[in-house]
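Bug report (template v2)

What were you trying to do?
Predict the complex of my protein with flavin-adenine dinucleotide.

What happened?
Run completed; filing so the output is reviewed.

Input:
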Amino acid sequence: MDDDSAELDVLVVGGGPAGTAAALRAAGLGARVALVEARRTGGTCVNTGCVPTRVLARTARLVREVRQAGDYGIAVTEQPVDWARTVARVRETVERVQAAKAEQEALAAAGVDLVLEGRARFTGPHEVELEATGRRLRARSVVLAVGGHSRRLPVPGAELAVLPEEVLDLPAVPRRLAVVGAGNTGAQLVTVFDALGSEVTLLEVAPRILAQTDADVSAAVQQAFVEQGVRVRTGVSGITSLERDGEGVRLTWTEGAHDGGGERSEVFDVVITSTGWPASLEGLGLEAAGVEHTARGVPVDEHLRTNVQHVYAVGDVNQESMLVQAAHREAEDAAVNAVLGPRRSRRHELLPAGGFTDPDYADVGLTEAQARERDPGCVVALVPFAAMERPVIDDRTRGFLKLVADSRREQLLGAHAVGESAVEVVQAVTTAMAAGVDVATLARVEYAYPTYTAVVGAAARQLLASAPTGYEHVTQG
Ligand SMILES: Cc1cc2nc3c(=O)[nH]c(=O)nc-3n(C[C@H](O)[C@H](O)[C@H](O)COP(=O)(O)OP(=O)(O)OC[C@H]3O[C@@H](n4cnc5c(N)ncnc54)[C@H](O)[C@@H]3O)c2cc1C
Ligand SMILES: NC(=O)c1ccc[n+]([C@@H]2O[C@H](COP(=O)([O-])OP(=O)(O)OC[C@H]3O[C@@H](n4cnc5c(N)ncnc54)[C@H](O)[C@@H]3O)[C@@H](O)[C@H]2O)c1
């Protein structure tokens, strides 16, 4: 269904990482492009998600460093955290990142018409209306990049919970905190508030925290949380209700079968629910465009098209790989498809990701369990950070790198790390995987001494060795 009367070739709805990348790519191909953003460019990532979370993670890390300073002869009396100052620092950083990215300037330079007239709503398959002005825009193709939002639990009193994007509005660091949901968001908030002095309880319905990660990663982060004094309850049957109780919130949940299955109720100063991230479809008028969707998001085909062939959906809205790096790739591919016709069908083959907890964790490729399903003879090497010199020097020995390779010990299938610089270590492996570097070559690469990344060479050598899980022979350099 083409529309030759449209004034635009491509209309992009949403100015987060996905929308901005799509608009810039489409304009770069010579298309007439408009980008409609309801609030502010940068989207969840810059304004409420990755950037604020990363500053809070750094705050938590600084608290840990200060506590350890005495070991190095630096006398530091631990000071209470000034939460208002922390929040101010987060907000200042968001502005600095906004300035560094200069997206509005980049869009203008590329000839993209940035339209900040409120939310867009479809009025037909090729047309949207803008909430603030009532203006209508028509385009031959539309790229939906509206992202997602936190979900409120469907239980009585759910509105008493604080959502992750509301954390900066808390008046103070809570003394008793419950975090419900141990995905990437919940796990990171646990580390932040534990470091800032909260007594944290973490509740998760899945049998383990960070359920999408490799089982060893999940177990290692959970063990660290428990040692740090966090109460971790996994496999809970569900949250029953939240109700006001004095100054606090009474949270009632049903324990999992392995904890007796009974109902349990406790009062917390704050309850944060980080229990999922459905697409932001409300008020979008998808029915007017004939675009089908589920309760979570908008499904797409291999060319990132919805059921309506000129409407694409990229980034969090399609609910496939909800990460910035995925949003960028999908957006660029969809832009090419929208302007030149469907030709890009590449999916994410290597999508590294990580979380800034204490300790950090990261992964790329197949988990050990996924690899074993495909290739029962696959080989696994796991090198603990305690066997490497740099982590020992820095007193950061918690963690490991696990590499998974095919049964012939040639091709890397996955990398999973926990510990200091885990995300950077996994990124190094990702680069090798993307370049098609085989295990033997990776084992021969020189690693600067002493680095965290040297664990990659040690793990590759272990993969080649016959004793797959022996750590004794691991040497550095
Ligand atoms: C707490 C948190 C931490 C995170 N940390 C990381 C991290 O460290 N690394 C990582 O890779 N990912 C991280 N993510 C995920 C990352 O933020 C998302 O994957 C990414 O922002 C998705 O980009 P997007 O463009 O699809 O959506 P968004 O960034 O959500 O952008 C969507 C945009 O669309 C606009 N919009 C919505 N509806 C309309 C409408 N009807 N009309 C006009 N505009 C509209 C919104 O205002 C918004 O600006 C984090 C997420 C959260 C919640
Ligand atoms: N560092 C990063 O890369 C980063 C950080 C934060 C978020 N993100 C991305 O943003 C998206 C949203 O992340 P998220 O963590 O908010 O959501 P999520 O969907 O990834 O995790 C939600 C968790 O809540 C649990 N849950 C659901 N209902 C529950 C209930 N009633 N009681 C207890 N637990 C319950 C789920 O089992 C799950 O573990 C994800 O795709 C994530 O990858 C990435």
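What did the reviewer find?
The longest helix spans residues 50-68. The pocket of flavin-adenine dinucleotide (ligand 1) is lined by residues 13-19, 36-39, 43-45, 49-50, 53, 119-120, 145-148, 164, 185, 280, 284, 315-317, 322-325, 327 (CB under 6 Å).
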